[in-house]
Write a structure and sequence with these properties.
heterodimer, A: 170 residues, alpha+beta, Jelly Rolls, 4-stranded antiparallel β-sheet, 23% strand, B: 373 residues, mainly alpha, two-stranded antiparallel ribbon
């Protein structure tokens, strides 16, 4: 029989990672984390279950944080009705979305809908704030990585803008 | 038609379930009310201490150790306070009983009675039949106070048990607070999930800032009361235990409107005990005009000034902002809390009203944006 006490004592020795940690390791926001830091992070992560067709969030709803797909798939869309739905992205396991909400109080800028029965990991502003208060080094790492991700996105957008400008000139 | 019928059945079913739950709660309530009270207190302490535990965790990066340190410091502080308070009180009582025997006490009361009757308008003198009566009533009052002290001792045992349980709950809640909140968040249905997280956060913020404001205003009242009592001592009021009287006044001040008057009582008692048999104190006059035996009027005036400073300068800047309730709402909440739970209800009425306000404003926000869900 496994007792909780023994499990706790040998917690540090257990090198097999939970599925949550494996998923988190694929996310660039948590780049360069030590194993101990991943365990710390795992305590903050929320597990959410969505059925196919469920809204994860809706356009213009107040946003609270980012989601990471542990299992299943999600589409990001604009437009409420199915017939004029404009799919912006289709995301698979290990992808993440909604990270902009970690920084601002602005409403969501698109819908997120589960296209399969999905298991998502949620990481929210309040958790980041409380982590920043208790473990600033870890919080700083996350913020720095988030900055990197956003910078990458901005560079991509710039490239698209330059391409479209040069194509209209030609 | 069929659909409507199932709706009816569903409604009846839900109503029955609700009624059974209520009935069940009413049966077990006497057994669980104490536990719920303990949990509420533990939660309040947790909210107050959480920021200091988090701050310490940042320094030593170990949650358990920081919880232990904060709790030990708190318990040590309370222990030192109560211990020295009891020893000083008993010293005071011993000195008092050595100095004054029963006959002097009665004769002293007689003098006070005479003085009081003399200074009263004539129509009041007619109401109070004789001076002897006055002295008798006063010593009767003292006897009742001593009698109720004895019954208080038995309540101390019960209190110690509750305090220990609250202490244990607080430690667990502090250590596991973030895990606890996470599991609370996990039961929110998907549709209201992000909103629920925001709501929990807002409630947390409002309650903790309110409580911190309350403790700051209590501390300011305590400090000002000590300063005021020391000032009175310069004028010969001969007050002892000033530090403790100040802290008691500060704590009593946590109950709005009623508490401040409770805070005056120990100061007046001490002034009375220390100056019994002292003719200068007996004939003391406030501003050389108004007769104020045993500096009683001076003490009341001092506490009134402290309360005015606290009520008009300190609380509006610390507490008023954090909950942001209209004074009328505060009064109504106090009345309701006082009616339901007595002094304890008054203590919790205003934070509860604050929590309700946050929830209502969030619900109003949801209703306004209902098309988004």
């Amino acid at each position: 029989m496994k007792s909780a006490k023994w499990e706790n004592i040998f917690k540090g020795w257990d090198h097999s990672e939970s599925k949550t940690v494996v998923t988190l390791k694929q996310v660039p926001v948590f780049k360069n984390f030590s194993n101990k830091e991943f365990l710390e992070l795992e305590k903050l992560i929320h597990h959410r279950q969505y059925n196919i067709g469920d809204f994860i969030f809706k356009n213009r709803a107040p946003g609270e944080g980012m989601y990471i797909i542990m299992q299943g798939s999600v589409k990001i869309t604009i437009g409420t009705r199915n017939n004029n739905e404009n799919i912006l992205a289709e995301l698979e396991e290990g992808d993440f979305f909604g990270e902009l909400a970690l920084f601002d109080d602005e409403a969501r800028s698109a819908n997120a809908i589960a296209t399969n029965d999905s298991q998502l990991l949620g990481f929210f502003t309040q958790d980041l704030m409380s982590l920043q208060g208790r473990n600033p080094v870890l919080g700083q790492k996350i913020l720095f990585n988030l900055g990197g991700v956003l910078g990458e996105r901005l560079r991509g957008t710039n490239r698209l803008l330059i391409n479209s400008q040069s194509s209209t000139k030609e | 038609m069929n659909n409507k019928q199932t709706n009816y059945l569903q409604l009846i079913y839900r109503l029955a379930i609700g009624l059974i739950t209520l009935w069940f709660l009413s049966i077990i309530w006497p057994y669980i009310s104490n536990v719920i009270l303990m949990l509420v207190f533990a939660f309040l302490f947790t909210t107050v201490l959480l920021s200091s535990v988090d701050a310490l965790e940042r320094k030593i990066s170990h949650r358990g150790l920081s919880v232990l340190t904060v709790v030990i410091i708190l318990i040590g502080g309370i222990g030192i306070f109560i211990g020295s308070f009891i020893s000083q009180i008993s010293q005071q009582a011993a000195e008092f009983s050595n100095r004054i025997d029963k006959d002097t006490l009665t004769s002293e009361f007689k003098i006070i009675g005479e003085n009081l009757t003399e200074s009263m308008p004539s129509f009041l003198q007619n109401i109070i039949s004789s001076n002897e009566d006055m002295a008798g009533k006063l010593s009767e009052l003292i006897n009742t106070v001593i009698g109720s002290l004895a019954s208080m001792a038995s309540a101390v045992g019960n209190f110690m048990f509750i305090a220990t349980m609250v202490f244990i709950f607080t430690i667990i809640l502090l250590a596991e607070y973030h895990v606890f909140r996470k599991s609370l968040v996990n039961i929110i249905p998907n549709k209201y999930f992000e909103l629920g997280i925001k709501l929990i956060y807002n409630i947390e913020k409002s309650v903790s800032s309110y409580l911190r404001g309350q403790f700051l205003s209590a501390a300011s009242v305590a400090a000002m009361s000590v300063a005021g009592l020391l000032l009175l001592n310069i004028f010969g009021a001969n007050l002892t235990l000033t530090f403790f009287i100040g802290i008691i006044a500060g704590l009593a001040n946590l109950i709005p409107l009623v508490g401040p008057f409770v805070g005056m009582v120990p100061a007046i008692l001490i002034a009375f005990m220390n100056n019994l048999g002292n003719d200068i104190a007996l004939t003391h006059t406030l501003f050389g005009v108004i007769p104020s035996p045993f500096f009683i009027l001076d003490i009341i005036l001092m506490f009134l000034i402290v309360q005015q400073i606290e009520g008009n300068l300190i609380t509006p800047t610390l507490v008023g902002k954090s909950v942001g309730l209209h004074p009328i709402i505060v009064m109504i909440a106090l009345l309701i809390g006082g009616t339901i739970l007595g002094p304890l209800g008054m203590l919790f009425a205003v934070p509860a009203a604050g929590v309700l306000k946050v929830i209502l404003s969030e619900i109003a926000f949801v209703r306004k944006n209902a098309h988004l869900l």
